[in-house]
Write a structure and sequence with these properties.
mainly alpha
Length: about 200
């Protein structure tokens, strides 16, 4: 998507971004294979059970597609002029987002890709979950918000922000499911008051 839409391989922002993206992916994959293959299996699940989540995922896919198609077009037609320093800072923040996601994987063995409650599942309230109820979505939000800048595009931030708004909708639906089906989750909601951003929401 990046290089075909750009019409060139001379797209250093894309190469830097791919290095930033793929390095932690392989490291996390190696960690899960060695330490928690059951969690890796949960992360491979794709079929949502909730109708609301199916709609959210479908809309998020459209935003995701646009968020990674536009940067290449932006490069080709020179719509944006993102400073080099901003690109580098954005790559660092994308990496930070991945770091938060990794902390979630270490803390929560039930972090499935889909919204579900498994037999024997317990509430996780330690580590990043002691500060906010959905730290994985915080990490993902950082990645989505700053990926367009890392790829040298201001315009791609529009669909990327759409993904973040859909994550908010996902959180609201997910919490209704968890409060209903996961024992102890309503009490956890009372104890940990913020969903995504400490002190704000």
């Amino acid at each position: 998507m990046l290089f075909l839409s750009a019409g060139t391989f001379a797209y250093w922002e894309a190469w830097a971004y791919l290095a930033t993206l793929l390095t932690p992916i392989w490291l996390i994959l190696k960690y899960l294979l060695e330490h928690d293959p059951a969690l890796l299996e949960r992360r491979m699940r794709l079929k949502e059970k909730e109708a609301a989540q199916k709609l959210i995922i479908a809309l998020a896919f459209i935003c995701f597609f646009l968020a990674f198609l536009l940067p290449g077009l932006d490069k080709r037609f020179e719509w944006s002029h993102v400073p080099v320093a901003a690109v580098i800072v954005a790559d660092v923040l994308v990496l930070l987002g991945y770091g938060i996601v990794f902390l979630v994987f270490r803390e929560n063995p039930y972090a499935s890709r889909i919204i579900e409650v498994e037999p024997g599942q317990v509430v996780v309230s330690s580590g990043p979950y002691a500060m906010i109820r959905h730290p994985m979505y915080l990490g993902q939000s950082l990645m989505f918000i700053f990926s367009p800048l890392a790829l040298g595009s201001y315009w791609a931030m529009i669909p990327a922000l759409g993904i973040v708004l859909l994550l908010v909708a996902r959180i609201r639906n997910e919490e209704r499911v968890l409060a209903k089906e996961l024992k102890g989750y309503p009490e956890y909601m009372q104890k940990t008051g913020y969903r995504l951003i400490p002190g704000i929401w």
